Amino acid sequence: MDVQFVTSIAPIVRDAEASRSFYSDGLGLGFEGQDGDYVFTHELEGAKHFGLWPLSEAANACFGTTVWPAEIPVPQASIEFEVADVAAAAAELTAKGHRLIHGARTEPWGQITARLLSPEGLLVAVCYSPAFRDP
Predict the structure, then answer these.
(1) Are 79 and 9 in contact (CB under 8 A)?
(2) With contact defined as beta carbons under 8 Å apart, do 117 and 77 qualify?
(3) Disulfide engineering: 127 pairs with which of 50, 84, 113, 116, CB 3.0-4.6 Å?
């Protein structure tokens, strides 16, 4: 697997307003984009993307429902690693004994992702993000 960069990191939030207040008012971060309750920035130096991802939206992205399954630990954050070939990276992870939440698939925003939980409880994606690639 050839990880090229950290694509994004996003705390998974249960109270979108409280988290937005903490990161905006408390830390002084600006968010120039919003999609529903998901707010994000591409302007934070050192990160391609930083967002606050509501748990219901993370559940929908992973399972197609707004409720996180009770039998799977609730993640605290999401981190995405850019790779050249998501399907190959997902196969490599599976071959090494890791259990994927879902295999390689194209998200509505054009990113290809495969996701799993880390031992620390992070929602980890290996991904290919056309929006962050040089033209």
Answers:
(1) yes
(2) no
(3) 113
Q: What angle do CA 92, 106, 101 make, to 5 degrees?
A: 50
CA pair distance 6, 47, nearest whole angstrom: 7
- Alpha carbon distance 12, 51 (integer Å): 9
Q: What are 81-131's pLDDT values in tens digits?
A: 899 999 999 999 999 988 999 999 999 989 999 998 888 888 999 999 998
Write out pLDDT tens, residues 25-59.
877 889 999 988 899 999 888 888 999 999 999 99
Q: Decide: helix, strand or coil at residue 56.
A: helix
Q: Which residues pair with 38 in a beta bridge?
A: 35
Instruction: Look at strands 77-82 and 123-128 and give their pairing.
Output: parallel
Contact of 58 with 123, CB cutoff 8 Å:
yes
Interacting residues of 119 by C-beta distance below 8 A, sequence separation 6+? none
